[in-house]
Amino acid sequence: MFSRILIANRGEIALRVIRACREMNIESVVVYSEADKGAPYLSLADEAICIGPGPSKESYLNIPRIIAAAEVANVDAIHPGYGFLSERAEFAQVCRDCKIEFIGPSPEAMGRLGDKVACKIAAKEAGVPIFPGSPGAIEDEDEAAKIAEKIGYPVIIKAAAGGGGRGMRVCHNEAALRSNLRNASTEAKAAFGNGAVFIEKFLEHARHIEVQVLGDKHGNAVHLFERDCSMQRRHQKVIEEAPAPGVDRRKITALCESAAKLIREAHYAGAATVEFLMDKDQNFYMLEVNTRVQVEHPVTEQVTGVDIVKEQIRVAFGEKLSIRQEDVVVRGHAIECRINAEDPDKNFMPSPGLVARFEPPGGPGVRMDTHVVTGYTVPTNYDSMIGKLIVHAPTRREAIIRTERALREFRIEPIKTTIALHRRLMQNSAFQEGGIDIHFLERLLK
Ligand code: ADP
């Protein structure tokens, strides 16, 4: 097994990887920026190396500095976490050139599935259901107008290299489509370095359902069933749960099997998530594949008992997956609440600063993934997510009651957080009945 792993990330996911390494008897080396200096989780790694100033470009996104740290620390592998460099094929390639194992897919597999246009083509071949839309990137406006006419309005324009819910445009008619196409491509080029855009049918009422998959370097792939991530704000997930409430199990199992087939055929080794939207009639359409561990992976870990981060590490080393498909059983129900340092009363404005009081919940079925402790200061430089509360119980009903109980115990002061919003959701009868969709939160917050 690897003897030393460098973690090219920060916060709760860095701590998650440190914990996996410790349990596998692997030394961990964590990098940090000046803004994260002194953060308590750093001392839990075997070594911590400062790689530059607070702005991500000068630290967590700076490939030469991370590689230099990896070489100084003499590590065998790099775990990229999520966000930052985790989905950059270029970074995976640099790691390979430096003979450091990238804990994730090969740059080739990342290219096949990480680009939304390339991925759709691969998905179609693997029998994964995709959206009606342009077969590839759009070459000209007239062609796009013809396709939109055929699939029917509204349609959505997206960037092939897009992410983070940015740069998407919904068009209700041909005039809007034509004018938006011109800007969308220019914007995509500026934001993602790739101007390729495509269109697909826009679903007004949908649920976001995604499938967790794992592949190894021996041609094996399994799925760990689905998560429902319909509770979103501005296309960003707020609550995730597993299994998806009220969905036909036969349909979902077939969907999960097609997702595993997709990554097997792409010769993909590592963890991936195949994301779908589901319409009112429970038809599924693939959105994209995320070629990394997801924020919400613990939900799946709680219901399947599989440690996804450890599997990532084993597979990167060259071991076979430790589980066979027939061993994967979903037990009970899990819910994750993202705890963000934001003020829901001020349009979710970030609320960084000193955490004078931090009292996380505990008790049966409660898992807290966070790097925050009393006395920690939430820096202004990064994402506002400061932790995840994950609750497991025998049924969805009990999971909701337990989540509400845990949220009630949770004290974070004086910064503002999303705890109260989550409590309100757990008490909402429509949520309790499973009547969720991707616009649920938007309607509630209006
Ligand atoms: P990103 O990579 O930027 O996160 P995704 O393609 O994963 O973009 O979409 C993010 C979210 O945007 C989805 O969860 C959904 O809420 C919304 N969305 C994307 N495509 C569609 C569509 N065709 N119809 C309706 N909503 C969509």
What topology emerges from the helices and strands here?
Elements (H helix, E strand, L loop, with lengths): L3 E4 L3 H13 L3 E7 L13 E6 L10 H11 L3 E3 L9 H9 L3 E2 L4 H8 L1 H11 L14 H11 L3 E5 L9 E3 L2 H19 L4 E5 L5 E9 L5 E13 L2 E7 L6 H17 L4 E9 L5 E7 L6 H8 L3 H10 L15 E8 L1 E2 L5 E2 L2 E2 L2 E3 L6 E5 L6 E2 L6 E9 L2 H14 L1 E3 L5 H8 L2 H4 L7 H6 L1
Parallel strand pairs: 1-2, 1-4, 2-3, 4-5
Antiparallel strand pairs: 6-7, 6-8, 9-10, 9-12, 10-11, 11-14, 12-13, 14-21, 15-16, 17-20, 18-22, 19-21
The site of adenosine-5'-diphosphate has 20 residues, from strand 8, strand 12 and strand 13.
How would you sum up this structure in a few lines?
33% of the residues lie in helices and 26% in strands. It is of the alpha+beta class. It has three domains: 4-103, Rossmann fold (3-Layer(aba) Sandwich); 130-201, ATP-grasp fold, A domain (Dna Ligase, domain 1, 2-Layer Sandwich); 207-444, 2-Layer Sandwich (D-amino Acid Aminotransferase, Chain A, domain 1), CATH 3.30.470.
Task: Outline the structure in words.
- The chain is α+β, with helices and mostly antiparallel strands.
- It has 3 domains: 100 residues, Rossmann fold (3-Layer(aba) Sandwich), CATH 3.40.50; 72 residues, ATP-grasp fold, A domain (Dna Ligase, domain 1); 238 residues, ATP-grasp fold, B domain (D-amino Acid Aminotransferase, Chain A, domain 1, 2-Layer Sandwich).
- It has 14 helices and 22 strands.
- The strands form 6 sheets. An 8-stranded antiparallel β-sheet has the order 13-12-9-10-11-14-21-19, with helices on both faces. Strands 3-2-1-4-5 form a 5-stranded parallel β-sheet, sandwiched between helices.
- α3 runs antiparallel to α4.
- The longest helix has 19 residues.
- The chain is globular.
- The model has no long low-confidence stretch (mean pLDDT 96).
- The structure holds adenosine-5'-diphosphate (ADP).
- The site of adenosine-5'-diphosphate has 20 residues, from β8, β12 and β13.
- Adenosine-5'-diphosphate (ADP) binds next to β8, β12 and β13.
